[in-house]
Inverse folding.
């Protein structure tokens, strides 16, 4: 699979999930709070790198926001983490 094809596949997956539309709406009376969310990518170095690039192209997370790619406990597998503060209402 070429990089362009993989990018389209990840982009299509992200666009078809509509995860935010499925979340229940919260009461407007609740004061917004900051909470942290962790995104963890685990896979081959190629898959993790491509996913980080796609999320950068989608302007979701800059490449520099991710932790360095490090080997995981499993041979041939790497890990990278992104921690974000989000407003929870």
């Amino acid at each position: 699979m070429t990089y362009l094809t993989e990018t389209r596949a990840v982009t299509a997956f992200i666009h078809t999930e509509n995860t935010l539309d499925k979340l229940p709406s919260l009461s407007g009376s609740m004061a917004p709070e900051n909470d942290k969310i962790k995104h963890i990518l685990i896979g081959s170095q190629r898959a993790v790198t491509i996913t980080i690039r796609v999320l950068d192209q989608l302007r979701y997370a800059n490449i520099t926001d991710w932790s360095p790619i490090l080997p995981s406990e499993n041979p041939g597998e790497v890990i990278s983490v992104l921690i974000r503060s989000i407003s929870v209402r």
